[in-house]
Design brief:
- The protein is an all-beta fold.
- It is built from one helix and 37 strands.
- Strand 14 and strand 15 form a beta hairpin.
Length: 436
């Protein structure tokens, strides 16, 4: 009689039920995409439900070399297959413990040859399928010293076809052949602590999310520790993906995606809590395809979101203040994906941010604190100014002049605004806000 897996209750990720990972392998990013600092929302699909194309807390996601997306639909105990545009193709699996049945599958991976491997998490096993969902075989994780089969949180396939599985319960990584024959156990110098997501780059380096320390471990193809990175960049991270040039981490508690170079250098992050485009609710799975598109299993919102890298663009603007110094104004630009970019105006009132477009913005804010001298000029003459962004006037922005006792105004079609003489002589601060 086999050993039963430890029983885990399927519950909200906020209470930290089993967390998955993903694999993407053998993919190349277009030139420059590895340095992209802006990721623009492209599309999303899925709502909460159990019919085809709908999800219940999807946690794992992977993309194959033929442009298909596989989603571990955790709460519905199944796998769903889509085209990259979100068109539904197939689904397989129901609740249970027989072959082609799952209990809370948390991760999915695809080999270069198209074999699909599923971390059947609460059954404590791995199941292998063809790309069309035909069952091939299954095998169980080893029994731990506590007498229980481990929790298969993450799964990946390396370029040589070996299958790597994280055991979140016992703080280990298992290596198998494509047919499930046990090869080795990795403990990474006893430093693994709740390993979850795992991904393998084309050069066979392995990236593991070590949830216990909120770090990413980089390992050699043989499982030897290479380096760790990500300190302070995420809270309770889960899924991870790599294309060989960059590493993407699902910052589940932070409701965002964090991007690093493979040497561990931080590149960018995007996302915020919410259900709008580019916002997340406890995202778990992340994948990247050969075009540099990033796919996110937005778990709490029961959907998949897709983002594209934006490179080689600059967004420029200008603040004009008649007869006054426009330099040193603080500029904050926020994208739909929740990324914030800050800069300051130069001596001519000009400012610019690389890697962002006007279409990316959700809001812009400019704050200018005037000197006593310029405040005196405003008290004597009032204030006239204008704002431009992206080569055009910023119309309809709300403009306030603090300490002036004057009501807020809106910029006109030419981006201009005017205040009369303030009622009291103070040091004034100009605040311009524009929502897109």
């Amino acid at each position: 009689m086999g050993v039963a897996p430890r029983q885990w209750r399927l519950r909200s990720l906020r209470n930290w039920f089993c967390v998955p990972a993903l694999l993407v392998l053998g993919l190349a990013v277009p030139a420059g995409a590895d340095d992209a600092v802006v990721y623009q929302f492209v599309r999303s699909w899925g709502v909460r439900g159990s019919s085809e194309g709908k999800f219940s807390s999807p946690q794992g996601i992977a993309v194959d070399n033929d442009g298909h997306v596989y989603v571990a639909d955790t709460g519905n105990h199944r796998i769903q297959k889509f085209k990259t545009d979100g068109t539904f193709i197939a689904r397989w699996g129901v609740y249970g413990s027989n072959s082609n049945e799952f209990i809370g599958p948390a991760a999915v991976a695809v080999s270069a040859g198209g074999a699909v491997y599923v971390a059947d998490t609460n059954n404590g096993r791995i199941q292998k399928f063809t790309s069309d969902g035909e069952f091939v075989k299954l095998w169980r994780l080893p029994v731990g010293s506590d007498g229980y089969i481990g929790l298969a949180a993450g799964i990946a396939v390396d370029p040589n076809g070996f299958v790597l599985v994280t055991d979140w319960t016992h703080h280990l990584i298992y290596k198998y052949t494509t047919d499930g024959e046990f090869v080795a156990t990795w403990g990474v110098e006893d430093s693994l602590n709740r390993p979850w997501g795992i991904a393998v780059a084309p050069d066979r380096y392995v990236y593991v999310v070590n949830q216990g320390s909120s770090l990413v471990f980089k390992l050699t193809a043989g499982g030897a520790f290479s380096k760790q990175f990500g300190s302070g960049q995420s809270r309770q991270p889960t899924g991870v993906a790599t294309d060989g040039d960059a590493v993407f981490v699902a910052d589940t508690q932070g409701n965002r995606i964090v991007k690093f170079r493979t040497d561990g250098t931080f590149v960018t992050r995007w996302g915020a809590e919410g259900d709008g485009n580019g916002k997340f609710s406890t995202p778990v799975g992340v994948a990247v395809d050969e075009n540099g598109l990033v796919y996110v299993a937005d778990t709490g919102n029961h959907r998949v979101q897709v983002f594209r890298p934006v490179t080689g663009v600059t967004l420029a603007g200008k603040l004009t203040l008649a007869g006054l110094d426009a330099s040193g104004a603080a500029v904050t630009l926020t994208t739909e994906a929740g990324q914030q970019f800050t800069t300051r105006t130069d001596t001519e009132g000009n400012f610019s941010v690389d890697g962002i477009q006007l279409a990316d913005l959700s809001s812009a804010k400019i704050t200018k604190k005037f000197s006593k001298s310029d405040s005196g000029k405003i008290y004597a003459n009032g204030l006239t100014g204008a704002i431009q962004l992206g080569g055009g006037a910023v119309a309809g922005a709300k403009v306030t002049l603090s300490n002036s006792k004057l009501p807020a105004v809106k910029t006109n079609a030419s981006g201009e605004f005017t205040f009369g003489k303030p009622l009291k002589q103070k040091v004034y601060t100009l605040l311009i806000k524009k929502a897109y």
